[in-house]
Amino acid sequence: MDRVPHQSTPAQPNVDASAPADELAQLRHAHALLVSTLDATHDGILTLQYSDNSIYFNIRFAEMWNIPEERLADLDHITLAEFQSSQVRVAQEWFALIERRRSNPDAEDLSLIEMKDGRVLERHVIPQRSLGKTIGSVITFRDITQRLRYEDKMLFNQQVLENSGPMVWVDRDTLVVTYANPAACRHLGYSVAEMMQLHVSDFDPFYGPAENQRVVDALDAGQGSVGISSRHRRKDGSLRDVDLTIFLTEHTDRAVYIVTIKDVTELKLAELAKKRHDATLESLINSISDLIFYKDRDGRYISCNTAYAAVAGRPVAEIRGLTCHDLFEPKTAQEMEARDDLSIRLGREQSCEHWIRMPDGEMALYDIVVSPMWDEDGERQGLLGISRNITERRRAEEEVLRAKEIAEEATRMKSDFLANMSHEIRTPMNAII
Question: pTM for the whole thing?
């Protein structure tokens, strides 16, 4: 679209025919310069003259409103308004804006126009005055679609920052905080204004030159981010264990560390409590002389106590992940596997006795009880087994049984002897009597 028709260009100034030729040339040059200047702007410009309802618009206005070139010569203020109403998303709102301008021509107005094609135009109405009287309106249109999208994106990013976990921005060269989100302020106990005056060493005494150099070297080597563990000192003096993730970016032509903070104090306390609990439980289990073991659903050892490890002939650490076939003779292992499978399948306790060859080659009899272990959802996750050496008890029982049999045999022989003696004595006595 190279030119707009003559009725949409400013009227030529009235020039006296007797004016010098050079003055006429200057006026025409000034007029041409004005037209070319208006056509060169990025904003669409529309002027309305109230005296005769004439209109003027620059090339950018026609392009912005998608006005076909063949219609430019036929447009007046009425047909233009109707054509514009076909381009906007809500025609009623558009006509309401026109009516508002007409009813109050002396007022300046600023509004946003939503187009059907998704664009958003900023409409600015400015009264055109001459000698203190409003003679028309100058209406500019500016496409702010990208600006609004950028502002929406920036607002979204700002909301993400404001509502995310603790995060601070630190100047790489000075290690002074340049930004802290609300979560970081709550984490350290400082206000936003106080955070802006802090050096990293004020709240992280463990982040020294050596640690900073390690971060610098890693980032310079192309590593996208660096993770470190440290401790933060809050405003009240308390210390918090933290995991930090650091990456480098540019902000206002300065290198800035973006540091995300994860407070792991409670997690470390929980881990420490768990370690203490596990150590206590392990000491307790290892102090028991009975053999104790745990297996998963596949029959692999999860752990055992030292008494069981002694019988198996291996350290506890080596037993983890093995099966009974790795520790015991084939027949014994098959019996153990069948017992464990039955307990897992039926979901109840099973007991049996096994002769087990000890590391020194001796055979020992163990009474073994296994029972399923359940998870929080009530699913069987493995089994627990407890074994007790009953070799001596069985020998004692057998000795008692043999003693009982000997006593019973002696009693029987005594009874037979007395019976025989009684018979032998009665026979001669009967003869004497």
Answer: 0.53
